[in-house]
Design goal:
The complex is a heterodimer of chains A (360) and B (542). Helices cover 22% and strands 33% of the residues of chain A. In chain A, the strands form 4 sheets. In chain A, strands 6-7-8-3-9-10 form a 6-stranded mixed sheet, sandwiched between helices. Chain A has a 5-stranded antiparallel sheet with strand order 13-12-11-14-20. A 5-stranded antiparallel sheet of chain A has the order 15-19-16-17-18, with no helix packed on it. Chain B has 542 residues and is mostly helical. Helices cover 76% and strands 0% of the residues of chain B. Chain B contains 23 helices and no strands. Classes of the chains: A alpha+beta (360), B mainly alpha (542). At the A-B interface, strand 6 of A face helix 8 and helix 9 of B.
Chain lengths: 360, 542
């Protein structure tokens, strides 16, 4: 079975600036891919390349086995069967809801048009608004129209450019779940771009993290979460905070003590000792001891406090008792706890043994 | 809103100025409409239907031609890969600088029986008399419409092109992804979206057409403007002229309302101007036709008439002409400088009033005074004559009662009337620039001086006016140029033996002797280029 979308060695260079470099990506029918990355990392360019609005410098894009773009030819956008939902929806202000939805299916006969429009209006709960003009609709309704318009021609691939950024936070989650169900129901393959990782976790089956025109990691969101493949990925997705550690012949040492690495699956010998590395620490892997004792001496103090729905959120700064550890100091270790602490309070923190993730 | 000014003097003077500027038009409308029904019946039974019909027909034909010229050129520049696009982009604006009556005269000269084209045709084919061949007659109503459209189409070109370029590029992209080619997207999305802008441009063209006097007069097409002129100067019938002017004014009011309505449709602004849109690729043959079309417009609307003028000037200019030019030029300069200065001062007064005064209706004086742009010069002249005439008589009566020497027609028969007319007519231009300049000043700057304990008068002098200096200059220049070009109002209102550049050129054209005034005509065109250059530069910056 051929993949629905196949991108090979895709590079785009504009005025000597590398926008996308050697990108490789495959999607199966029905996959929903969430594309994240900081602004300017090339996400939108990638969407434009797939849609047919940007020329490739190198590489190839094919859908269903048909090559759409390579270094030489570019199939025009209108013949790609790729749909797109724009950030600001780009609905036609001079047409009403029905005419907007019908725009891409004018070639079908009237009965078929009517049938598809009615179905979409039903699914997206737009029946009452069929004759309204775009400016008469709310933001959420406008987005539904944009979805209906993009789905009407039954595109092979649907692109969504930050589709949820204009929706207010309360409505956003609800809409995401709804749209995901709709796409799954229609078995539509989709790529959506966002800079919000939480949207990917809610919406996507697969996740691609981009930075500076490169694809850093491409996997299921849960895999990326548990096994980020680089410091950049873990840092961009804010999967935890960073604890500096030193690897030497004795093992792995940090200000929070020596780490228990005997069950470690990942081979730390890739880091030639002595090496300085960063340990990815998720808040749930930290143990807080409020009462400082001689067996648990204070090794950190509270730097910053905020209140969240998961209890108090603290940033901890290391207390360096031995001056020789100055390259192991930390100042922003993130910790959630129900225990109420005060600023500058000294605490003892230790790390649960787990499958440690070290990065350079 | 905090700390808005509440000066009573400012308020009073603002309303007073607006009122004074508009009073003559009101007086004329009241007089014209309340004039004897007999007069209207008489006019209706004799000349009015023809005048009206001609005026409407002219308007429709001008719009028809100007739409073709303007929309096609705008589409070619904004949506295709036409060759020499960068040059054509601004060259297509140049015809705006050409007064229609000049083009009309020059082409008549070129194409009529005694003109070089027909002469050479006759010589070549050995035709002896007009009955031997057919040649189009340019001095007709369609001919006049074509002349007007040739110089007015840039309004449509300019606004339509801007509309195309400001459309959200995602709209076109969306339509492409829904299966439409670039060409289909243009017809189904870009063009319909430009409709409000086109409507605004059409009403501007229509207003200019209704105000045109010299072209139709020269072509002997009887429209309302020529009728007003003839009725007043030919028959001295003020009442009838007034009635005709009122009819024309009502037509214009209708256009103004239509324009206001279409402006309301100009809401779709985009944060992502259509800068790198995908262009329609023209084939070679299409390139040739597109190029011929655009260059044809530029050549016919500007380059050819300009070349003819320059040729005339080279052939016929002498010292005597130059000294005459100097004399009438000084006259033009005098009234234009006065009009521009007064209009800008008024615009500042009313513009700042709108911005800084606490009056709930503070935008009214400025809006009322801006209405003058719609009043055709002939109508305005009639309005001033019918207002200032009685005022003059009244002043003279008072003077003789008081035993003083009668001052004569100090209002209606002096430069005062001309300058007044120019100020009324072009206040809108000054207002427009000044208001947009004021809008550039952040609101916080209005409040900052007060928070520092500085009085409004000081902050106006030290902050607002210095910030506005470039705007003031541009506003002044724009009014100055328009005042230099204005013809009908000057023609009807000028004192005996007082000639301006434009009135002199008009006289020479009427006498078929433009050769004598070619230098002056070139000067008028050059002045007309100034605002286009300014306009183009400020547009490019956006």
């Amino acid at each position: 079975m051929t993949a629905l979308l196949e991108i090979k060695q895709l590079s785009i260079i504009l005025q000597d600036k590398v926008i996308l470099s050697e990108l490789k990506l495959t999607l199966e029918q029905g996959d929903i891919l969430g594309l994240v990355g900081a602004s300017g990392c090339g996400k939108t360019t990638l969407l434009n390349a797939i849609a047919g609005f940007s020329k490739l410098s190198k590489g190839q894009i094919s859908i269903d086995g048909h090559v759409l773009s390579d270094g030489e030819k570019t199939v025009p956008a209108e013949r790609r069967q790729v749909g797109m939902i724009f950030q600001d929806y780009a609905l036609f202000p001079h047409l009403n809801v029905r005419e907007n939805i019908a725009f891409g299916i004018a070639k079908l006969n009237k009965t078929e048009q009517r049938h598809r429009i009615t179905k979409l209006l039903d699914i997206l709960k737009l029946n009452e608004h069929e004759e309204k003009y775009i400016h008469q609709l709310s933001g959420g309704q406008q987005q539904r129209v944009a979805i209906a318009r993009a789905l009407a021609p039954q595109p092979k691939l649907l692109l969504l450019d930050e589709p949820f950024s204009n929706i207010d936070a309360r409505l956003r989650n609800e809409l995401m779940v709804e749209i995901r169900q709709l796409l799954k129901q229609l078995n539509t393959t989709a790529i959506f771009v966002t800079h919000n990782k939480d949207e990917v976790f809610t919406f996507a089956d697969k996740m691609a993290v981009m930075a500076e025109g490169k694809l850093l990691q491409f996997d299921a969101p849960s895999n990326i979460c548990s096994k980020p493949n680089s410091y950049q990925v873990a840092d961009f997705l804010q999967l935890g905070s960073w604890l500096p550690c030193k690897i030497d012949e004795t093992g792995v040492n940090s200000i929070l003590g020596k780490l228990d690495t005997k069950d470690l699956q990942r081979d730390i010998t890739t880091f030639a000792p002595p090496a300085l590395v960063n340990l990815l620490v998720k808040p749930q892997q930290l143990i807080l001891t409020e009462r400082v004792t001689s067996t648990h001496p204070a090794n950190a103090q509270v730097e910053y406090i905020s209140v969240t729905e998961q209890g108090y959120h603290y940033y901890l700064r290391s207390i360096d008792n031995k001056a020789q550890h100055h390259d192991l100091l930390f100042n922003k270790l993130s910790l959630y706890s129900d225990i109420e602490l005060v600023i500058n309070q000294q605490v003892a923190v230790s790390i649960k043994p787990h499958n440690f993730l070290f990065f350079r | 809103m905090i700390a808005l000014n509440s000066s009573k003097t400012w308020k009073l003077s603002s309303y007073l100025i607006a009122l004074v500027l508009m009073t003559p038009v009101l007086v004329m409308l009241v007089q014209g409409i309340s004039g004897s029904t007999q007069l209207f019946v008489h006019l209706w039974q004799t000349v009015l239907p023809t005048y009206l019909l001609n005026t409407l027909l002219l308007g429709i034909l001008v719009i028809f031609f100007a739409l073709i010229f303007g929309i096609v050129s705008a589409a070619l520049i904004a949506h295709t890969n036409i060759a020499f696009k960068k040059q054509l982009r601004w060259l297509l604006l140049l015809p705006l600088a050409m007064p229609a009556y000049l083009v009309a005269y020059l082409y008549t000269d070129l194409f009529d029986y005694a003109g070089p084209i027909q002469r050479s045709l006759r010589a070549f084919f050995d035709w002896q008399s007009p009955s031997d061949y057919w040649f189009f007659d340019i001095r007709t109503l369609p001919g006049a419409a074509l002349m007007l459209a040739l110089v007015l189409f840039p309004y449509i070109y300019m606004l339509t092109r801007a509309a195309f370029e400001q459309q959200d590029q995602n709209l076109i992209r969306a339509s492409r992804l829904l299966g439409l080619t670039t060409k289909q997207s243009f017809y189904k999305v870009a063009l319909p979206l430009a409709r409000p802008a086109i409507a605004v441009a059409v009403s501007l063209v229509l207003m200019e057409t209704l105000a045109d006097f010299a072209t139709v007069q020269y072509f002997a097409v009887n429209t309302l403007t020529t009728a007003i002129y003839d009725t007043w100067l030919g028959y001295g019938d003020l009442a009838a002229a007034n009635a005709l002017a009122s009819v024309l004014m009502l037509l214009v009011l209708f256009v103004v309302l239509a324009e206001q309505r279409s402006r309301a449709g100009l809401r779709h602004q985009s944060t992502r101007p259509n800068a790198n849109r995908e262009l329609i690729q023209l084939s070679f043959v299409q390139q040739v036709f597109a190029g011929l079309f655009c260059w044809g417009l530029v050549v016919l609307g500007f380059i050819l008439p300009m070349a003819l003028l320059i040729a005339m000037a080279l052939q016929y200019s002498d010292m005597q002409q130059l000294s005459l030019l100097l004399l009438v030029g000084t006259n033009s300069l005098k009234i234009s400088v006065a009009a521009a200065t007064i209009a800008v001062i008024i615009a500042l007064l009313l513009g700042l009033y709108q911005r800084l005064h606490g009056d709930k209706y503070r935008q009214w004086p400025q809006q009322i005074s801006s209405f003058g742009y719609a009043v055709p010069g002939t109508v305005l002249a009639m309005a001033l004559l019918s207002t200032f005439g009685p005022l003059d008589h009244w002043l003279n009566d008072i003077a003789s009662l008081a035993g003083l020497t009668a001052p004569g027609l100090i209002l209606s028969g002096s430069l005062f009337a001309i300058v007044f007319a120019l100020v009324v007519r072009f206040s809108a231009i000054a207002n427009g620039s000044i208001i947009s300049g004021i809008k550039q000043i952040p609101q916080s700057i209005d409040y900052a001086p007060a928070s520092l304990g500085v009085k409004l008068s000081v902050s106006l002098a030290k902050i607002h006016l210095p910030i506005l200096t470039p705007t003031i200059f541009i506003a002044w220049l724009l009014v100055f140029v328009e005042a230099m070009k204005e013809l009908p109002a000057v023609l009807l209102l000028r004192p005996f033996n007082f000639e301006t550049l434009s009135s002199q050129i008009y006289q020479l054209i009427s006498d078929e002797m433009l050769e004598q005034g070619a230098l002056g005509a070139i000067l008028i065109v050059l002045f007309g280029l100034l605002p286009i250059v300014l306009l183009n530069r400020s547009k490019e910056k956006l």
